[in-house]
Specification:
It comes from Ovophis okinavensis. The protein is mostly beta strands. It is about 0% helix and about 30% strand.
């Protein structure tokens, strides 16, 4: 199945077309997507918090390695302190 068939009205993008996209993994595999908002921070959903996070930059496909991919371990994570953990949609934001 082509990736463009997975999203209604979507098209596969060119390699490195969206350089701010980040793939976030834990020890079991792909967990979430994120966005690089400056040279130091990635924003993602707080419900993506997990032990052993790794971030991959430059990923175009989870199946095909891109020579520009870089993997980084987070130094810090910040989650909204008033977030209600039992409500996945409440203040669901995390900075890594």
């Amino acid at each position: 199945q082509k990736s463009s068939e997975l999203v209604v009205g979507g098209d596969e993008c060119n390699i490195n077309e969206h350089r701010s996209l980040v793939a976030i993994f834990n020890s079991t595999g792909f967990l979430c997507g994120g966005t690089l908002i400056n040279q130091e921070w990635v924003v993602t959903a707080a419900h993506c918090d997990s032990d052993n996070l790794q971030m991959q930059f430059g990923v175009h496909s989870k199946k095909i390695l891109n020579e520009d991919e870089q993997t980084r371990d987070p130094k810090e994570k910040f989650i909204c302190p008033n977030r209600k953990k039992d409500d996945e949609k409440d203040k669901d934001i995390m900075l890594i």
